[in-house]
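Memo to structure team: turn this sequence into structure tokens by end of day. - J.P.
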Amino acid sequence: MAKHRRFSDKPNDNSIQNNEKTELQEQETNEKTSLDLKTILLSGTKYAYIIGAVALLSGIFTPLTLDVEIEEVIFGMLSIFLGLVGGIVIFLGIKTQKFTTIMVCGGLGMIFGSLILIYQSTNNPLIN
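Reply from structure team:
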């Protein structure tokens, strides 16, 4: 004997669409509420450690050991920090879904600017 489907047995298309809408709304609210104070402090300390490591690696102790002028050391540190900020902007641009291409292009521009400044400080300019 064949089973006949009743009208109530059919899946309701509107309920599927409503479920998808509620899932999208929940995802949007999760993204908005994820910017609480604890996550901001954790991400801030993460970047503070990165900046501290780059400062030490970029030669903050060079004037003490080699008698180099402090202006040259500060210029070198700032050019390396510019490259670091460019890398962070690229990372954030890939991680977020808003303004991805703008942030990646801006980060690459910062890294390229850092490269130009580093070559400029060694008296071998890339751009004449």
